[in-house]
Structure prediction request, 573 residues.
Amino acid sequence: MPRRSVPTGPVLSTPATEPAEEVGEPAPQPAPQPDPQPGLQPDPQPAPHRYRARFAALAAGAVPVLAFPAPGQAWLAWIALVPGLLLMQRAPSGREAAVRGWWFGAGFILTAMYWLVPSVGPGLPVIAVLFGALQGAVGYTVHRLLHPPLTTRRALLALLVVPAVWVCAEYARSWHALGGPWALLGATQWQHPAILGLAAAGGIWLVSAAVAAVNTGVLIALTAAHRRPRAVAAAVAVLVLASGPLLFSLREAPAGAGAVTVALVQPGIVADPQARFEASARATAGLAGQPVDLVVWGESSTTADLDHDPAALDVLRGLAATTGAQVVAGEDARKADGRISKDAVLVSPAGVVDRYRKIRLVPFGEYIPLRPVLGWIAGVSRAAGENRAPGTGFHLLPATDRTGAPLPVGALICFESAFPDMARTAARDGARVLVYQSSTSTFQHTWAPEQHVSLAAIRAAETGRPAVQASLTGVSAAFDAQGRELGRLGTDRTGALTVRLPLTAPGTLTWYDRIGDVVPVGALLVTAGAAVAAGVSRRRSGRAAGRAAGQASAQASGRASAQMSAETSAPEL
Prediction:
């Protein structure tokens, strides 16, 4: 009998994992079966190549910082993550992608907060390494969802999950004991009230999520092999970009309820405490005859305990009487109990009306965490030589305008302007104006003063309240209830800035005032759900691979047994 021919050409098959995206395009080659623990496998890349990629990720972390003040290239934020995300996507394993994300995060922190060197000295690299580790989760997520061949389904998941993981990383490092919510990605958009429409809806977290989503969409559009994922990513990016202006246009302008005139006093760089107090007093005295409703001094504008220093208090009482406006002074003094604290003190012609004591202190700047262990840092930097005493809770200052009408003020001190929840609490408690007192004299000629004042604009947009910042050395500025700048004094100027602030109606609340931190909570749920789904998928893949291996082994064993039986039963010639 003629022997049956066996086909020798390739046998075509469809991928077992995901179908080809479009008819007419070549089907992608079957993806290799996912490893049950891809993040734990050895990295096949040579060490020199790995470290070149990691140093590239470290440098890529500096790119988004250019979108923050003072470089202020806000447009760059929408594409600045792409170089780092690309390095994470192209990593040979999930573990290497996580490491690159870590290096990217460390580069970001080092660059964004370089001005902390005088305060924390050699501690800054340690902070960068610790905080940078949070971005390792971003790297792993990008690699897992966006590795080629990229499908529409995974592209859509990435556009949701990657921004969620990014927000989780920002939220985790925003705990005040870890340094607080500084250099959040959404803060790059502080000069764009239309984009800050997102902040009024979901806080700074929603702005960060939007920027991260657009960067993810750009990455997909640049790297996807098929048109459908590229089109989906582009559509989502455009939709996200339009959402801020859309919310801004749909949001009703805060109902007007009159206006007040606020004066912000900026004495400039004056090292001697008494001379600084006198410079602030002279600038305030120059306001006499102007229709000012409230005068705000900067943080640490007096080192006198106004409850026990009648001479200093008499000066402030006289200024309040001369100007016809109450004064919010910044007190940085040793109190009767022997401890130093920072207070915002409201003074009228009759004396001290009320005071708010700062409750969230700057790590290393105002206290050293674990001082018995880390106290040595004070010897090699300008870290706090003595821990300040924190306050026990927040409350409004019961100010009045020049006519005697109530003007409740949410006064917060320096570092506290970084915290969305504190401004939200003030708004819900009935504050008509947010007042921030600041002193960035240690950080002059760095990006810190501009970064700091930008936070007041964001807090104004989030809460629908006008906000002002009075800084000893600048920047002092005022913003309306939508975050639009009304006036400023830069670090090169001194004197008093007088601004007319339109007020919102009492009881006016933004969506963010009402719902609070729903966005980071939602991001945590999305991230947790994605982690659970990934774990389930890995287990299923592992079981399927085990079953396939078992079946193949059984088939091979059967064939071997059949062959042996055939050989033993064959007749001898």
The chain has two domains: 46-250, 256-359+394-509. The domain at 256-359+394-509 is CATH 3.60.110.10 (Nitrilase/N-carbamoyl-D-aminoacid amidohydrolase). The longest strand covers residues 256-266. The chain has 16 helices and twelve strands.
